[in-house]
Structures are given as structure tokens and as C-alpha cells.
């Protein structure tokens, strides 16, 4: 595993989340899949990313609210998962999902710290001789600090996660169906939880009902 | 392109200056902070216009940079609308009028973008990608289509909002009210609910791992989905806690 590349990709993902463009490579679905694709295991990355995406869907970055940062955590967790197990392992996948949900909060704290830094740094008095150049320089430094933050928190998450997942996975000796059972309950809850984003069941019963019919038809036809 | 060209010619801004403002708007949240929110980023994005307008007046440039660094907020994809309108106003209005305009639009641009993009377009595109995953399409198809469709809407909105701001100047509020925003939101909500509905049977009847399933568990998954529908985003932390607890119990049982 190239740890510097993991950190650098985490940095780019961190920038995409807020500082630059928001093209959504910072969504767990994309970030986890691309991380795993580089390691030659895109299928497992897609599975992990899809589960984390369901948990991230209900987080709305509204105004100045503080929220967990799911993109960098997804890169860190996917790396940790890939290091911890050479093959698809539902138990390690479950542990990885839980680690990611925890690490998102750590990433979110570092975002708040960066914003506090910006609060002081950006508002220092502007150089009277070239205020435009000073503003530009500070803005770019703030962007760089965000990249460095995301780099560090991704790398730290990947290393800690790899150690934790490896250690815990060795303890796991239960039947192979237990981990998928636990995960599936969480998945179904989070799919349902995304409906209120669109007005809830009462408001959208026609659309939701049509969707269920479509889903059942797909099941029958395939 | 035509709108930007005509607006640029109308206001006397070179096209390159306006394009630079639009490109810089991609970095508008670069120095996000709790004091001025995206104020610093707004001033950063405005710099090409300010340098053009105050090219021989350094004192006025300094004052303008300071004015535009003050508190401002907007949804990032709709910030070009404010940048376009303020570029026009900066040329023809007094600083107090520009400040009042910025203060008037900052709340509505934030709310509008949050509703249309963060709570509409983004989850719809993500659910579509998840549906593709549930249908077992190759990984790159799901990821590529998600990025392509989402960003087609994203960059179209940035481009449209910049042109709209340049064209309507301080009248953007009135002009925006004439747009069918409610209708767009209604169709996004419809598409989102449809996708959730389509995804649920696939998730419940076709578990992610082969060799696992059964009627009792399908029933448990339906109950889980109903709880999710009932409580929405509030279930996120309880679900994470329940999964953690179940995992800890499983690990303890394993260790015994």
C-alpha cells in the first residue's frame, strides 16, 4: 500500500468536500470505490462505499452546521479494510463500516479546527500596499491547510483503522451470517431514512408506491 | 456563452475577467470560517472585477477588497449568481447599495441551494447510483454515471446562475421568483421517493452477500426500513450505536 498516495487522495477528497468545486468525488460511494480500484479490488470498495453512502445521504451540510466528514473517512476506512483482509470478509466489512462512522467525527473535528484557524488568519489586517495580493495569498494558504488537514487525518485513519480492523478481525469467530445480518439491518434502516429527505411517506406515497412496484418488477424479471 | 458575452459587452467587462470570476467561484469556500463564512472567498472571486474597475485607484481597490471580505454566505453553486450581480452593481452603484444587496440575497441563496441541491439533486443522483449498484452493473458504470449526471447539473447551475446574475443585476430576486423553482423541487422529490421505493425491495429481497437471507430476516429488514422512514436522518446515530452494540456482543461471544 502506498501510504503517501492514500494521504494525497484523502487530501484531494477533503478539498472537494468544501474548499474546491464540490464535484462529489468526496462522496463515500466514489471515494471508497476509487481507493479500492487502485488496489485492484473495486468490487469491495463499491460495497463498502455504497453502505457508507447510505449513512452519508441523510447528512445535509446546511449553513454553518457541524457535521461528520464522510469522504476522507471513506478513503481511510477503505485502505484499512484492504490492508486488514486479502479477501472479501463480511466481518471486516462490518467493523470497517463502524470504524468509518467513528472516524467521520474525528475528521469533522479537524474541519472545525481548520475553520477556527481561518477565522484568525484570514481576518488579519490586509497589507495596505497590496491588499488584493495579501487576500489571494491567504486564501490559497487556507486551501493548502485544508489539504494538509485532510491528508493527515486520512493517513492517520488508515493506519489506526488497519491496526484496529486486523486485531478485531482475529477475534471474530462467529458464523459467517452474523456480520451480514447486522449490516443488512443498518442498510435497510438507512434506505428508509432517506425517504423523509423528499417529503416523507405521507407526502410522496404515489412516487414511493410506484418505486416499490418498479423494484418488485425488477426482482421478478431478473 | 452568449449571455456572458452580451452582459460583458453591456457592462464593459472583458470576457476574460468574467471567466476568471466564474473559475474562482469554484474556490469560494476555500477560506470558510465562522466569522465571515465565505466572505474571504467572495472577495477572492471578485478580485478580477475589482482590479479591472479600480485599476488606477489603489485606495479604492483596498476599500473594495475590505468591503467584500465581510460576512457573506450562499450555496456554493449559486454563489456565481451573487458574483455576477455584484460585479454589475460594483460598477454602477454606491458601496452601501452593494452591501445591502449582498445582505439581502445571502440567506435566500443559501436556502434555495440547500433545498435544490443538497436535499434534492445530490441524494437523487446518489440513490440512482445505488440502484445501479443493486442491479449489479460494473463498478465503473455506477461511479462514472453518478459523477457525469451530477456534475452536468452542477456545472449547468453554476453557469446559469452567473449569467443570470450578470443579466439581472440587482433585480435577481424578483426575476428568480418568476422561475419554476417549486416545480423543480417537486420533481426532484418525486424522483427521490421513487428511487427509495425501487431500492427497498432490491435491498430486502436480495441481500448483499450470497447464502444469507430468509423470511424472518426479510421481516426484520422491513421493520428496519419502516423505522428509518418514520424517523428519517435522526436514526443515523441510534443505528450506528445499535450496530456497534451488536458487534461488541458478537466479538465477546467470539472470545468466549
Lay out the secondary structure.
The complex is a heterodimer of chains A (222) and B (256).
Chain A: H1 3-17, H2 28-38, H3 42-57, H4 70-84, H5 90-121, H6 131-171, H7 178-193, H8 200-203, H9 205-221
Helix pairs in contact in A: 1-4, 1-6, 2-3, 2-4, 3-5, 4-5, 4-6, 5-6, 5-7
Chain B: H1 2-11, H2 15-24, H3 39-53, H4 58-68, H5 79-92, H6 95-134, H7 139-168, H8 172-177, H9 181-205, H10 215-231, H11 236-255
Strand residue percentage of chain A: under 5%
3D shape of chain B: elongated
Assembly category: heterodimer
Gross morphology of chain A is: globular
Number of domains of chain B: 2
Strand content of chain B: under 5%
Summed up, the domain count of chain A is 1
Distinct helical segment count of chain A: 9
In terms of structural class, how would the helical and strand content of chain A be classed? mainly alpha
The H-and-E topology of chain B, N to C, reads as HHHHHHHHHHH
User: Kindly state the mean pLDDT of chain B as a whole number?
Assistant: 92
- The rounded distance between the terminal residues' Cα atoms of chain B is 69 Å
Rounded to the nearest angstrom, the distance between the terminal CA atoms of chain A is 38 Å
Describe this structure as you would to a colleague.
The complex is a heterodimer of chains A (222) and B (256). Chain A is mainly alpha-helical. Chain A has one domain. In chain A, 75% of the residues lie in helices and 0% in strands. In chain A, helix 4 (70-84) runs parallel beside helix 6 (131-171). The longest helix of chain A has 41 residues, at 131-171. Chain A is globular and about 70 Å long. In chain A, 57% of the residues are buried. The model of chain A has no long low-confidence stretch (mean pLDDT 94). Chain B has 256 residues and is mostly helical. Chain B has eleven helices and no strands. The longest helix of chain B is centred in the middle third of the chain and has 40 residues, at 95-134. Chain B is elongated and about 80 Å long. Chain B starts with a helix and ends with a helix. In chain B, 47% of the residues are buried. The mean pLDDT of chain B is 92. Classes of the chains: A mainly alpha (222), B mainly alpha (256). The interface between A and B is large, with 101 and 100 residues.
